[in-house]
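Help! Submission page says 'invalid entity' but I think these are all valid:
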Amino acid sequence: MTGMTSSARPLLNRRLAEFGTTIFAEMSALALSTGAINLGQGFPDTDGPEEIREAAVRALRDGRGNQYPPGPGVPELRTAITAHQQRRYGLGYDPDTEVLVTAGATEAIAAALLALVEPGDEVIALEPYYDSYAACIAMAGGRRVPVTLRAHEDEGCFRLDLDELRDAVTDRTRLLLINTPHNPTGTVLTREELAAIAELAVERDLLVVTDEVYEHLVFDDAEHVPLATFPGMRERTVSISSSGKTFSFTGWKVGWVTGTAELVTAVRSAKQFLTYVASGPFQYAVAEALRLPDSYFEEFRADMRAKRDLLAGGLEQAGFRVFRPAGTYFITTDIRPLGESDGLAFCRSLPERCGVVAIPNAVFYDHKETGAPYVRFAFCKRIEVLANAAERLRKAFAH
Ligand code: PMP
Ligand code: GLN
């Protein structure tokens, strides 16, 4: 009897009962078993810079990081992270007390929520939300309160309604869990929106956990502004980022937290019992990656923008309504113009219909009916792969 003990008590505890296998695992397995082009799970199909790969090999060979690194992360990486925050955003952090290296942003999110949330606390998250948020809020015993980003079809984007956000705050709200650039919608919160979020956090004395893993993936005239830069925010914000997206090494799982010593110490209290430490030799390589010249970041962005435009054009020609992302490497589409309305069923049938895998946004919603018609495609793939996928979608759907 799967999932049951002999006493018929469910095996999986109640907090996790609503979470099955993550959609990323399900859809990547589907891509493998059908041989379809995988535009589902967000990982690049080419590795990051060769010199950074070589830096990891060198660290391994030189015996740096092959044994447990220090709990907060190797000093070289912590210094590189603070230098990056200073250089890009003018944010000053102490590498000894205000930085924590984690096993990807995923562990940082888990540790932050486990550290800061008491059972019964409300956590406001932007819906659609990255799937680990819901699971980690649940593991911490918190109650998630989604605030929905609304589709603005006329503008081709999803936007936060600040009044809805304000209305969602109650006396039980402990923290705001923000994500910008936003996965899966591609929305980049504007300076004005972020200022309003900051004012609200200060006024209601809320903690903020901000997931900024796509900080370097913003396009056109969009600008990434870290929440921690706004007045009153440095002391209440746990900022999270990761090397996976920026340097195209998602398997290395090197992420980090920056914040005041008090906040970082709290997050470390949880993190030390999750992995304790991870990714020793890769930490040295990521330290080098963070010091790459501005030209690396500019070229990376330009390359991804071209890929976005290629896939967005293909999806439009196939008949999807496309929400052109201002950031991240995902495109959210509306499938209703194709005469479809159930994104989950659509994604499950897509490999058979045309040999492409995508992600149904409904899994990132509490309001499933709101999310039902949206489907996400990743464009962090080689140009020829994207062109092939676009052609398959056009053949299957354009008339
Ligand atoms: N946050 C968001 C918004 C993501 O899209 C992802 C997946 N890349 C993560 C966190 C997890 O990052 P990592 O792979 O560094 O754990
Ligand atoms: N962040 C990646 C995405 O949104 C997936 C990471 C994962 O598989 N957990 O596609």
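Support: the input was valid. A stray whitespace character was the problem, and the output above is from the cleaned input. The pocket of glutamine (ligand 2) is lined by residues 22, 24, 41-42, 183 (CB under 6 Å).
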